[in-house]
Amino acid sequence: MGSACIKVTKYFLFLFNLLFFILGAVILGFGVWILVDTSSFIFVLQTSSSSLNVGAYVFIGVGAVTMFMGFLGCIGAVNEVRCLLGLYSAFLLLILIAQVTAAVLFYFNMDKVKQEMGSIVTKLIQNYKDGQEDKLQEGWDYVQAQGKCCGWVSFYNWTENAELMNRTNVTFPCSCEDKEEDDSTLLRKGFCEAPAGNRTESGNSPEDWPVYQEGCMEKVQAWLQDNLGVILGVCLGVAVIEILGMLLSICLCRHVHSEDYSKVPKY
């Protein structure tokens, strides 16, 4: 291979590794977001689900390793160090195998994740306490208010809350209230009593609640599906870059004839 081709290969490899580094930062950021987010359904899941927490740490680990490999590949490409290029190719292959394995495992556990979501939300609704300062409850209130939905399957899920159903007046979850005006900036929490004009003699009957009728299950699953699509798109992009990076690094490594460790930058 001529020196011009080697130079082109070297700088293409550097460019791919720069993209690799950036996508690794995106994956790492997604894992951190799962752990620190407090204003979406992810917070409800990660507080109650150990599997989601494990997944978040996996994303952080994969993202960190991906960034490190991008950095290592950049140094190996620019300085034409065969040992770094060989190590880089081997690690890329291992990361690619791990990604494919994780994707397969996740695909075959999707039904389990959906069941876990349902049981988490059902338990949360059953144990919901009025006036209690609880981040988990606030997270679910946020989901209901923003999604304009109530309960999991339907608003009847709230009839399983003993404290709510023991109220003698018409009382309902505040975050479920079906309001004509859009007051999304104010998050209402706890239980609310219906105005005096809306009260009936039948006690706290769910048919009298001025709430959204639709449950949140389909909206939450659609939200997760949309976000999952973004993450899978990023992972697919990383996989393509990994394959191209391996090919370019192997090609460059084969045509770097001598080890010159004086090219390795000294810090």
Oligomerization category of the chains in this entry: single chain
Structural class: mainly alpha
Helix content: 55-70%
Would you list the SSEs in sequence order as H and E?
HHHHHHHEEH
Poorly predicted regions are 258-267
The profile of the biggest β sheet is: 2 strands, antiparallel
| Rg for CA atoms | 26 Å
Shape: rod-shaped
What is the arithmetic mean of pLDDT? 77
Please outline what is shown here.
By secondary structure, this protein is mostly helical.
Question: Layout of SSEs?
Answer:
Elements (H helix, E strand, L loop, with lengths): L2 H34 L4 H8 L1 H30 L2 H27 L1 H17 L8 H13 L14 H4 L5 E3 L17 E3 L23 H38 L13
Helix pairs in contact: 1-3, 1-8, 2-3, 2-6, 3-4, 4-8
3D structure, described in words:
The protein is mainly alpha-helical. Helices cover 64% and strands 2% of the residues. The chain is built from eight helices and two strands; from the N terminus they run H-H-H-H-H-H-H-E-E-H. Strands 1-2 form a two-stranded antiparallel sheet. The radius of gyration is 26 Å and the shape is rod-shaped. The protein starts with a helix and ends in a 13-residue tail after the last helix.
Give structural attributes.
64% helix, 267 residues, two-stranded antiparallel sheet, 2% strand, rod-shaped
